[in-house]
Amino acid sequence: VKNIQVVRIGRFEVDAWYYSPFPDDFAKQTKLYICEYTLKYMKRRKTYEQHVQTERIRSPPGKLIYRSKAPTLSADCLAAGLEQPAELTIFEVNGSLAKVYCQCLCLFAKLFLDHKTLYYDVDPFLFYVLCEVFDDGGHHIVGYFSKEKVSIENNNIACILVLPQHQRKGYGKLLIDLAYQISIREGKVGSPEKPLSDLGQLSFRSYWTQVLLHALRAHRGNMSIKELSVMTAITTEDIIATLQSLNLIKYWKGQHVISVSPKIVDEHLRANSRASLRCDPSSLKWTAPPPVTDK
């Protein structure tokens, strides 16, 4: 049962969607006030207003790894009263170095996620926090994804959320693309943690479809599944499932074979032509850490 009904964060009041296990006194409130920079949560408006006036922190407590000019918002977003940001930034926040911030992020995110179970044990995770930057210079959180530092299953996303007031801006695809750009630089393939929500399934399938079709067009369809996987960091299982949904794969002599002509790829690209936001690799300042070696 949903406990908190509404949260105030920055200039937005947002309806909560699901229950979140905030500590007792806070969980009993129908409205919480959340600082958009520290994610500290408060019960009273007066406390919140004092905090906003005195707080000097203006960004997440992590390493700035991405900065780019913000794309122009759609007419629908502007008509809804959303402001045009100047830039987008992404910070890599280490769960063991910024424990309180990451715990607050998880509790806040649970208000909008049905199946999330991570709240307090944040040490094994990295959090990639996407922000909008305006003329005030502050980095205003709009979404994030988390990722295990070491994943046995090669998951490159554990949890992903774009805050409700910032959805339909393309930020989900930007975060997904960032996760795959990092996997490429790590020399790994990756896949989101399963099971995916219905919305997650749609978002990832749409992303995989666009990336794979563009790769096939660039190579005129002459690629193996393994080559596609190495180039895109998408797992062979996710590639096979996506190409099967497009009827672009055959099972021949005991193995899956890509079966496309340039004309069919172009037809699919036209059908999936809606432009979506991508992570600009030249704006991503991230290098893989050196491998840990046993002495």
Provide the descriptors you would attach to this structure in a database record.
five-stranded antiparallel sheet; 13 strands; 9 helices; globular; alpha+beta; 295 residues
List the helices and strands and how they pair.
Elements: E1 6-9, E2 12-15, H1 24-27, E3 31-34, E4 41-42, H2 45-54, E5 63-69, H3 75-79, E6 87-94, H4 99-110, E7 125-133, E8 139-148, E9 155-157, E10 159-162, H5 171-186, E11 191-192, H6 198-218, H7 225-232, H8 236-245, E12 249-252, E13 255-258, H9 262-271
The SSE order reads EEHEEHEHEHEEEEHEHHHEEH
Helical fraction equals 25-40%
Main sheet overview: 5 strands, antiparallel
Distance between the termini: 51 Å
Can you give the mean pLDDT?
92
Structural class comes to: alpha+beta
Total helical elements: 9
How much of the sequence is in beta strands? Answer: 15-25%
Q: Report the C-alpha radius of gyration, rounded.
A: 21 Å
Can you walk through the features of this model?
The protein has nine helices and 13 strands. By secondary structure, it is an alpha+beta fold. The protein has a five-stranded antiparallel β-sheet with strand order 5-6-7-8-10, sandwiched between helices. It has a four-stranded mixed β-sheet with strand order 2-1-3-4. Strands 9-11 form a two-stranded parallel ribbon. A hairpin with a 5-residue loop joins strand 7 (125-133) and strand 8 (139-148). Helix 6 packs across helix 8 (236-245). The longest helix is centred in the last third of the chain and has 21 residues, at 198-218. The chain is globular. The model has no long low-confidence stretch (mean pLDDT 92).
